[in-house]
Amino acid sequence: MTDPAQVRPPGRSPDPRPMLLRAEEPAPELSRFFYGAVGGAWHWVDRRDWPMERWLAWVDRPAHELWTCWVRGAPAGYVELEAQADGAVEVAYFGLLERFQGRGIGGWLLAAGLTRAWQREGTRRVWLHTCSLDGPQALPNYEARGLVRCGEYTEWRLVADEG
Q: What is the set of domains in the chain, with CATH numbers?
């Protein structure tokens, strides 16, 4: 995404309307919670074994923003933004806990995250990676919010059998 005008909000607002909160204090426990709660079902493993010190190093930087989504006081999802030196902002991680999927919250949350990314001073591009280890609605949501594909590649990884 190279222009904030490309952000497309969802056609409907979730009911009840979620609350979006920024973790203004470095919150490694919260970031780790959302990573595991959202990505566990999709075999996200890159950060699974990080010690707390590494989580703290990840979140305790000016380039990092953790935005959390809450519905009726319950954690529903999150967006992690990472500003980069070239004026890009990466949506580093994004997703919903399973029980909040299919309720229109994902489109609302992604649009809010993309809008916030464009509000950072000096932003020239907003982007993200996705893969087959994301939920089936991830790519359609990204494209519906205005993101466009700019490359594809194949990478093989072993996924632990949890069954």
A: 4-144 (3.40.630.30)
